């Protein structure tokens, strides 16, 4: 009986942890004129298929560590590819040509700081308090609190 | 060897020595020219391969770390180092199950990945250096990095090494040949001078002593050669004087002399021979001896003895009266010759010999001898006829009888008659007539 109760509690905790996952938002440097990005463009950027902003500046990608749940959610939702496949793509692009591969940082704080200090950087983080040096941009014209927002 | 001919430059000792030396040195040099470039290129190749391997290791390490930690910069750095190499041809990254993660190739045709798997760490093919470097991070095998580099650099380097070796080798050959030529000129120069001096000496040209500049064997040879030439000169002069003397002697000697070679052809005759046989030297010299002797009616047994090479001394030869010798045989009598045959063997070869025939006209001598004998005989006959009384004769003081060797007393007339050619005719002297016949004397 006790054992069954324990299982129920653990399952409840797991479900609650997934359900409590926060919304992922796309952030850029506060000086970046971009305010919205299409999910397809975002996919191309993080797949390495687009490396410059429309203004012609090189995109400075920041990514999470491979074991990060945020990254997994982002890849599953936006890139719709596993991290291993995307990584292969990046390696292929690195050995073929001059591109700027993503900088992989271990913590959200470092990622935010990176974006705050790199004008043409872009990253995705869980929606928390953001410093004024970064800004959250809309995805497909939707704010993160929009019910249609993909990265909830 | 014909010393009148100058030695052809290609046949000179200097040339032979140079060629001989080059024949030894050039193969060695060629060996080094051929062998060493390969050795050098091997060293260079190994060095290059080591460099490639280092690059491959660095790239694989960067890839392994980069892939494991997603530090893409590390991947980029390793790859960029590899791709900076101008000989870079391809890079292939395989995962742990040999699936292709990434590939970049500058080759016209992409490399056959299947054939590159299970590749040796390094392999040099005809134009490609292929490397295979596993990617391991914290003892975890992540895959393998395959790299390909063109071997052009090695080929170019090898070509440059070879070209440089050929240039150096050829220069060495030329320099060595020049050096050998100079050295041999220094060493053999005195020998060449001696050879030229010997050639000119053999041509009876003026000979000047060669200066011996060194005290080595060549110097000794030069000095000895000068001494030898000086002695030869002196001996030649003595020989000429001796020859002149013998020529004078042969020209003036009354005996006829004739020399023949071992094929019995007349070599030379002297004046007395020409006079005796009324022939000019040109008509005799070079002709067969047998022909001349037969023409001069020599007895066949004498000719055969001569042709057999027999030696004899003072053999009388009688030549019958001949038209050709009528000046000599003035009274058409037999010409008597004294013939001596001497065989002379050559000092250089026992098989080579010459024969000397000495002929003396002894006709007059024999005639004089015969006359002398005849006179002696006549004298002896006369002497035998003359009985001469000499010495003391014991005679009786009274009866005048003479005692002979046997002690008998002989009448004077009888004794003289017996011991001399005297004959007695008896008569009376006037005193005896007076004494024995006084009557007769008184009437008178």
Protein model, in words:
- The complex is a heterodimer of chains A (152) and B (444).
- Chain A is of the alpha/beta class.
- Chain A has one domain: Periplasmic binding protein-like II (D-Maltodextrin-Binding Protein, domain 2).
- Chain A is built from five helices and six strands, in the order αββαβααβαββ.
- The longest helix of chain A is centred in the first third of the chain and has 18 residues, at 2-19.
- The radius of gyration of chain A is 17 Å and the shape is globular.
- Chain B folds into four domains: 1-202, LuxQ periplasmic domain, N-terminal subdomain (Beta-Lactamase, 2-Layer Sandwich), CATH 3.30.450.220; 209-252; 253-370, Beta-Lactamase (2-Layer Sandwich); 402-443, no CATH class.
- The model of chain B is unreliable at 1-5 (pLDDT under 50).
- In chain B, the strands form three sheets. A five-stranded antiparallel β-sheet of chain B has the order 2-1-5-4-3. A five-stranded antiparallel β-sheet of chain B has the order 7-6-10-9-8.
- The longest helix of chain B is centred in the N-terminal third of the chain and has 57 residues, at 13-69.
- Chain B contains 13 helices and twelve strands.
- In chain B, a hairpin with a 7-residue loop joins strand 9 (335-345) and strand 10.
- With 444 residues, chain B is an alpha+beta fold.
- Chain A binds chain B through residues 63, 65-66, 87-88, 90-92, 94-96, 101-104, and chain B through 63, 66-67, 69-73, 75-76, 79, 83, 91, 93, 101-104.
């Amino acid at each position: 009986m006790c054992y069954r109760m324990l299982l129920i509690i653990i399952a409840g905790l797991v479900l609650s942890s997934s359900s409590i996952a926060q919304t992922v938002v796309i952030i850029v440097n506060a000086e970046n004129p971009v305010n919205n990005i299409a999910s397809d463009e975002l996919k191309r950027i993080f797949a390495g298929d687009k490396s410059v902003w429309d203004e012609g500046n090189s995109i400075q990608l920041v990514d999470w560590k491979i074991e990060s749940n945020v990254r997994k959610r982002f890849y599953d939702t936006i890139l719709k590819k596993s991290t291993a496949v995307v990584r292969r793509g990046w390696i292929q692009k690195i050995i073929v040509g001059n591109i700027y591969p993503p900088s992989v940082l271990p913590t959200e704080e470092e990622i935010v700081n990176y974006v705050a200090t790199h004008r043409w950087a872009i990253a995705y983080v869980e929606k928390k308090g953001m410093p004024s040096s970064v800004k959250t941009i809309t995805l497909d014209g939707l704010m993160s609190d929009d019910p249609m927002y993909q990265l909830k | 060897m014909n010393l009148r001919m100058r030695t052809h430059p290609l046949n000179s000792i200097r040339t032979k020595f140079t060629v001989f030396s080059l024949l030894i040195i050039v193969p060695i040099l060629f060996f080094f020219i051929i062998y060493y470039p390969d050795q050098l290129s091997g060293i260079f190749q190994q060095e290059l391969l080591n460099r490639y391997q280092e690059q491959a290791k660095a790239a694989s390490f960067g890839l392994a770390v980069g892939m494991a930690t997603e530090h893409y910069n590390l991947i980029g750095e390793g790859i960029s180092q590899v791709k900076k190499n101008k000989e870079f041809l391809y890079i292939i990254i395989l995962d742990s199950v040999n699936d292709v993660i990434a590939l970049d190739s500058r080759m016209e045709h992409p490399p056959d990945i299947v054939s590159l798997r299970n590749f040796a760490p390094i392999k040099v093919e005809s134009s490609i250096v292929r490397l295979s470097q596993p990617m391991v991070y914290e003892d975890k095998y992540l895959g393998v990095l395959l790299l390909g580099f063109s071997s052009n650099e090695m080929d170019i380097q090898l070509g440059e090494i070879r070209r440089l070796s050929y240039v150096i080798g050829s220069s060495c050959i030329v320099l060595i040949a020049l050096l050998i030529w100079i050295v041999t000129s220094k060493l053999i120069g005195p020998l060449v001078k001696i050879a030229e001096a010997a050639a000119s000496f053999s041509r009876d040209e003026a000979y000047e002593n060669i200066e011996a500049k060194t005290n080595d064997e060549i110097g000794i040879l030069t000095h000895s050669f000068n001494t030898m030439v000086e002695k030869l000169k002196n001996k030649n002069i003595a020989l000429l004087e001796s020859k002149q003397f013998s020529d004078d002697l042969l020209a003036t000697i009354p005996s006829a002399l004739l020399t023949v070679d071992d094929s019995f052809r007349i070599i030379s005759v002297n004046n007395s021979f020409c006079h005796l046989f009324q022939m000019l030297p040109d008509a005799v010299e070079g002709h067969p001896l047998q022909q001349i002797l037969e023409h001069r009616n020599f007895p066949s047994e004498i000719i055969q003895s001569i042709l057999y090479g027999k030696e004899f001394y003072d053999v009388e030869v009688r030549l019958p009266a001949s038209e050709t010798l009528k000046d000599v045989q003035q009274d058409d009598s037999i010409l008597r010759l004294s013939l001596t045959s001497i065989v002379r063997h050559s000092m250089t070869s026992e098989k080579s010999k010459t024969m000397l025939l000495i002929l003396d006209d002894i006709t007059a001598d024999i005639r004089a001898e015969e006359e002398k004998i005849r006179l002696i005989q006549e004298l002896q006959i006369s002497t035998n006829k003359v009985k001469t009384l000499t010495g003391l004769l014991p005679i009786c003081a009274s009866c005048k009888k003479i005692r002979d060797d046997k002690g008998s007393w002989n009448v004077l007339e009888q004794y003289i008659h017996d011991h001399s050619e005297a004959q007695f005719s008896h008569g009376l002297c006037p005193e005896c007539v007076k004494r024995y016949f006084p009557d007769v004397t008184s009437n008178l």
